[in-house]
Structures are given as structure tokens and as C-alpha cells.
Write a structure and sequence with these properties.
By secondary structure, the protein is mostly helical. The protein contains 14 helices and no strands. It is globular, with a radius of gyration of 19 Å.
Length: about 325
């Protein structure tokens, strides 16, 4: 469902056969996580993934929609630079800077709250939020494979092989997350909850799609993936503990347990092979690697604040209550 003039114009266009869209209204909300802008960009990016039922595949590269996506992406990039800043990073500082970013931040985190006091309803909400990305987990990062070389390419393929279940369809991480959703009594259909998910959450998916779809952002995509692998093991373990405390079937915990094991191994590959190899090949993009990591940190922090603030008020963090 549209959330404003921009998403309304795009969704209305997609409901018809491909044609030149004369103009897209100017967005009046925040280009990074405003509900209208975030949904509009999410819908345009989704044309490169599984798209939508009854939407003609020719829409993917219709020039007028490509232009609309570029305008929305420009707004998102500008806002990211405002939030994150931009600094010149020497190649030799990249690994150390990533390690610094991955250090725990004082204060109770979202994963700690879920582990210690998260209710079934809150864990259902959390899974609904995460479904925007987790049901297509790994796909955006895969776009970097043909854009990398040597050690970096080999390391990324190694990481992605694990993300895709080492060739076993039932072990795809996206499939494991679908199992978690079913265990929580949720609909695991791809895109089932898009209308429930606020712009703050859609921004987390839009960010990695932006980096993945554009070759010029390959350094940021490397930083995004490396930082995720470096910072996810402890939170994933806490989410597994939360579900165990709530009595969720073991099959529903497999997604989180798998990440605790896989990401600890992927962290080493990401630092030594992916980042190390990438910086050797393209040292001039060192600053992009750090920008990608900081951008991920920014959107994830906003996502966590949104959930924690809503729960503290005793409210749902979704646009529609489960």
C-alpha cells in the first residue's frame, strides 16, 4: 500500500503495463528512513530481486523508473553522508578501524533486551522487521562477485557459499529464517509483511541493495559485509537464547545457531581474505570500505532505537500490529 505521493506514483505505475512514467512527485519525507521514500526505493530495488506478482519484468530497466530510483538513491546517499560523515582512510588503517567499530557500545542492546525480557509478541515483531532482508539474505552481496578480483573474489565466494547452505537448499540462510518465522507462527511468504514494516527498517534493506546494485559502491559493499560478519556472532547467540527461553522449537532456532557458528568463521575470511584482498587490489577505495561499515552501523542503530523506544512505551514497533 502506498505511504505517500512517491510510493503511490510508483506502485500505480507498476500496476499497469510498462510505459514511460512522465514524472514522480518530489518526496517530502526523510530520504533515508521516511516511510514514503523508503517504500518507494524498496519497491524499485525489488524489481531486481523477485519483483511482485503481476508486475511485468520489463519494468526492471524502464528508463523513467531507473531515473526515479537514481533520484531516491541520491537523497539516501546525501542523508547517509550527513549521518555518517566522510573521512579519508589510509589502506593500512582499514582493518583496525573495522575492529574499532565492532567494539561493544555501552548500554543495553536490542539483542540483550530480547534475550532477557523479550516477549513472544516482541520476537514476532523482530522477525517481521528482519524478513525484509533475511528472506533474501546474501543476494545483495553476491552482486559484488563479478566486480572483485583474486583473493577478495575467492573470499566472497567462500562466504556466500556458506550463506547459500553449501549447495543444500534447505540450509539456505533465507530458508532457515523462513523456518524461524513459521516456528513463531508467522507467514514466511516472501514480502508478506512489507506493509507492516516502517521506513526505519526498510532503510536497512535499501542500504545493502544500493551498495550491491552499483559497481561504484563495491568498496562500501565489502565494508558492509565484513562489518556484519565481525559484529553479528554475539547478537545472534542472544536471539537464539531468547527463543529458547520462550520455548520455540529447536528447528526455529537453527537460523541463529547457524549464524553463531558460520559468522565466527566468516569473520576471519572477511577480514583476511575479503577486506585484505580488496585493499591490496584497490587501495584507493579504502575510505569506501569504512563508509560501508559505518553506514551499516548507522541504520542498524536507528532500527534498534525504533524497536526499543516503541517497546518501552508499550507499543508495537510495526505500522500494523500483529
Amino acid at each position: 500500500m502506498p505511504r505517500g505521493p512517491v510510493s503511490g506514483a510508483i506502485l500505480e505505475a507498476l500496476s499497469r503495463p510498462p510505459h514511460t512514467v512522465p514524472s514522480i512527485p518530489h518526496s517530502e519525507d526523510d530520504p533515508l528512513w521516511g516511510d514514503d521514500s523508503a517504500l518507494a526505493l524498496y519497491a524499485l530495488h525489488e524489481l531486481h530481486y523477485r519483483s511482485f506478482a503481476d508486475v511485468d519484468d520489463k519494468w526492471e530497466w524502464e528508463p523513467s523508473l531507473v531515473h526515479a530510483a537514481a533520484k531516491l538513491e541520491d537523497g539516501l546517499e546525501n542523508r547517509l553522508r550527513e549521518e555518517v560523515g566522510w573521512e579519508r582512510v589510509e589502506p593500512g588503517r582499514v582493518v583496525g578501524e573495522l575492529s574499532r567499530l565492532a567494539l561493544p557500545i555501552p548500554g543495553q542492546s536490542l539483542s540483550e533486551v530480547c534475550r532477557d525480557s523479550g516477549t513472544l509478541g516482541q520476537m514476532q515483531e523482530f522477525a517481521i522487521h528482519r524478513s525484509a532482508y533475511q528472506l533474501k539474505e546474501a543476494d545483495p552481496h553476491t552482486w559484488a562477485i563479478p566486480r572483485l578480483h583474486g583473493r577478495a573474489k575467492a573470499a566472497l565466494v567462500r562466504i556466500q557459499t556458506g550463506e547459500y547452505g553449501n549447495g543444500i537448499s534447505t540450509r539456505l540462510h533465507s530458508e532457515l529464517f523462513a523456518t524461524t518465522m513459521r516456528a513463531l507462527g508467522l507467514d514466511d511468504s516472501y514480502g508478506a509483511y512489507v506493509d507492516w514494516i516502517p521506513g526505519t527498517t526498510l532503510a536497512t534493506a535499501n542500504l545493502v541493495s544500493l551498495f550491491g546494485l552499483h559497481r561504484r559502491w563495491r568498496g562500501a559493499l565489502v565494508g558492509h559485509l565484513a562489518y556484519f560478519e565481525m559484529s553479528s556472532v554475539t547478537p545472534m547467540g542472544r536471539y537464539a537464547e531468547a527463543l529458547r527461553r520462550l520455548g520455540i522449537d529447536e528447528a526455529g532456532l537453527d537460523f541463529y545457531d547457524e549464524h553463531v557458528e558460520a559468522d565466527s568463521n566468516h569473520e576471519v575470511v572477511a577480514i583476511d581474505g575479503l577486506v585484505g584482498g580488496f585493499i591490496e587490489e584497490e587501495p584507493e577505495l579504502a575510505s569506501d570500505v569504512i563508509f560501508g561499515a559505518k553506514a551499516l552501523d548507522c541504520v542498524e542503530a536507528a532500527f534498534a532505537r525504533h524497536l526499543l523506544d516503541a517497546w518501552l512505551r508499550g507499543e508495537s514497533s510495526l505500522l500494523a500490529a500483529p
